[in-house]
Amino acid sequence: MESKIERYVTAVPKVELHVHLEGSIQPTTLLTLAQRNGVPLPVQSVEEMQRWFTFRDFSHFIEIYFAISRCLKTAEDYELIAYEFGANMARQNARYAEVTFSPSTHYFSLGVPFDTFFAGLTKGRQRAQAAFGVEIRWIFDIVRDIPDAERNRKRAEYTLAVAQEGREDGVVALGLGGGEVHHPPEQYVTWFEKALETGLRSAPHAGETVGPISIWGALRTLGAERLGHGVRAIEDPTLVEYLAERQVPLEICPTSNICLGVYTDISSHPLPRLYAAGIPI
Fold first, then answer.
1. 221-250 burial: b if 16+ Cβ within 10 Å, else e
2. Which fold has domain 156-281?
3. What residues act catalytically?
């Protein structure tokens, strides 16, 4: 029997602000995509895939992320995953979502051009809106842990360019994803300045695997209006006060934080303290 709080959480209208589209693909859909595009996977059934999906470490996560992404080839594939994401949001009574997507991965690593993937994403989100009343918008994120500086620059420039091109069709913000360690926000100020100048919003990831210095960098140099994660703000009382005074929202993902070893268990997670301090969560 559901508890009162479970019934409330199920029924209340919601928004989803921290989700990666590639990571939202359901196992059955992934098997279908792999089969129709002739992409081999190390698993052949939903049960095997669920075991494969069980988090081990960050390297395993990246392995699965690329295995999933390689199954996407056509505009119809991207349409399908966007539409199914909308259906999943409707089942959770989520009415609005800002979904992170990594264009440079699909173009540079997988060879899928912008016209292909964005046509599919656009049609999928339009179908989801019509069928379920779910509004989907996109955050195109720069993937920051590319080791070669020139490749990194090209990917950042590409991400900004396609984000600007997609503004009239649902792209609302420039994001910053990938590994924080050795890749501080300050390295990406050029592209975020240009994004803000053209009307895109700033929504970088910061403050999960690196502490307050990463959050300060995102706020001061990238003009961050909302932060992916941001939990390690708790380590700096001045930063906590700053976020509360300016009402900068944090997209907190406790399961991610625990899987990555940022916190050992849910009882040690700082979410209640950040909320009590007046920071929008």
1. bbebebbbbbbbbbebeebbebbbeeebeb
2. TIM Barrel (3.20.20)
3. 208
